[in-house]
Amino acid sequence: MEILERGRAALERLDVAARAVGHGLTWIHGSGTTRVRVHRPGTGGRVLLVFEAEGREHGAYSVSGTGFGRATELVKGACGPDVTRARVLVPPQRGAVMLLEVSAPGPWRLALRPAGEARQLRRGTRLTGRGVESVVKAAGLRAVRFEHHGDGPFRLLTVTRSLHTGPVLADGRGEARLTVPVPDRCLLRIETTGRWSLYDSGT
Predict the structure, then answer these.
(1) pLDDT, tens digit, for every residue of 39-97?
(2) Reported pTM
(3) Is 5 helix (H, G, I), strand (E, B) or coil?
(4) What gap in Å lies between CA 175 and CA 155, rounded to an integer?
(5) 10 Å Cβ neighbour count for 183?
């Protein structure tokens, strides 16, 4: 039984890693500022927006939704010399198609995935990533350990159930290793262009 459990856990880790680097995604490609129609998974609930921009161009990027009754900015950030990545949960919208406006200084690609593919931070786990990402924090974790690797700015903030940004838990610039108290049940969002780690602090 223990061997089966270890095997199942290994498969789950591989599955999460594959999703994190984009395996199995149906990408929509574009360049510059473009409006696109993207078929959404599911039947109207929130979804996970996966966005990547090539690292050849410097400048700002943004993705906005135009089907929420008004234009709603879903994610924005800076493009740098490395590939820019974002994985963010976006609010529910009626209809099977999302209308998005994407702006980036160079080539980009995006995909919509089920909200359940957002990564989860559980007790005893460690997540690593690059760029902007929504993370589902399990109940019972009262503090998290956040590490930022790089010279640029970073923010760690909470996100409400309606996926609006909440209080900023930590912000700064450059290398950082912080233990941050967090609400019991919440979504977290990391905003940076660099690499980061997030894990249970054990408290």
Answers:
(1) 988 766 889 999 999 877 789 999 999 765 667 889 999 887 788 999 999 988 778 88
(2) 0.82
(3) helix
(4) 12
(5) 15
For the chain, the residue count is 203
- Give the DSSP letter of residue 99: E
| Bridge partners for 186 per DSSP | 137
Residue type, 27: W
CB 60 within 8 A of CB 76: yes
> What does the angle CA 119 – CA 166 – CA 160 come to, to the nearest 5 degrees?
55
Q: Could you tell me if 49 and 87 are in contact, meaning their C-beta atoms sit under 8 angstroms apart?
A: yes
Block residue for tokens 């989860």: 120
Whole-number Cα distances in Å, 85 to 70, 75, 169: 25, 11, 22
Q: DSSP code of 25?
A: -
Amino acid at 56: R
> SS3 for 108-174, per residue?
EEEEEEEHHHCCEECCCCEEEEECEEEEEECCCCCEEEEEEECCCEEEEEEECCCCCEEEEEEEEEC
**For every residue of 172-194, which 3-state class applies, written as one string?**
EECCEEEEEECCCCEEEEEEECC
